[in-house]
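thoughts on my protein:
***
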Amino acid sequence: MVDASKIDVVCLQETKMSMVSRRLVLSMLGSEFDNNFIYLPYDGASGGILVAWRIQLGTVGAIRVDAHSVSVQFYPSDGRAWWLTCVYGPQQDQDKIQFL
């Protein structure tokens, strides 16, 4: 589906995975996503974020993994840097207040 749709970025939330390996990304998305991914492991029984991208998006300037988000800064060939951030909010009521 990723190849047929010509998708350049894949953002998955609620992965419920403690680890995302290169092998897993290659098997799910193909070789064009090789070593072009970051992830936030799940917390307890919920959460988890995976962001993967094709190299055609440009050079990656920075990567940031926080408690509830992952961010990637891209530098495409046109020189206009941009950020992609995927957020997954906490499920516990006490954590939601701090998150907001």
